[in-house]
Specification:
alpha+beta; 5-stranded antiparallel β-sheet; 6 helices; 19% strand; disordered N terminus
Length: 154
């Protein structure tokens, strides 16, 4: 009886560990979230949509498997941008999160002499990762951006 009980416990523990390790897929509509950020925040610049191929010129996405992406970029006179990316896995989203951090580091360098006033936005950039999704919001309203993003990931 004890042997059988120990076997059952071992199986249950294994199932719990395996289910906890599988990267959780988050079902958030990327376009809806990006549009909510665009509509809910006041931007100084006229941000507009760019495609993934164009975005790859600005971001180092390495070999992350991207399944959905939405990019809103400013004209270049500000650091304002919105990026929402859904990946195949949690590991891919972690690569995107790192690419966001790299982008903000590059933006700091670029804007230091160009438009130093943008550094406050860059330093307060919201970088968010949950499951297989990663989000970047650069604006004058990081708290509002965080609130909007949180509302989608409840």
């Amino acid at each position: 009886m004890k042997k059988r009980l120990m076997s059952v416990i071992a199986v249950v523990l294994t199932m719990l560990v395996v289910s906890g390790c599988g990267g959780k897929s988050v079902e958030v509509n990327s376009q809806e979230l990006a549009d909510a950020l665009k509509a809910g925040i006041t931007y100084k610049d006229d941000i507009s949509v760019i495609d993934l191929e164009t975005a790859k010129m600005f971001y180092s996405f390495s070999d992350a498997a991207i399944t959905e992406s939405v990019f809103y970029e400013g004209s270049g006179g500000t650091a304002e941008e919105i990026v929402v990316i859904k990946c195949e896995s949690e590991a891919d989203a972690a690569k995107i999160e790192e690419a966001f951090r790299q982008r903000m580091s590059e933006q700091k360098e670029a804007f230091t002499d160009y438009v130093p006033g943008e550094l406050e936005k860059i330093n307060a950039a919201v970088i968010y990762k949950k499951g297989n999704m990663a989000v970047l919001s650069v604006s004058d309203e990081p708290d509002k951006a965080r609130s909007i993003i949180d509302s989608y990931f409840k």
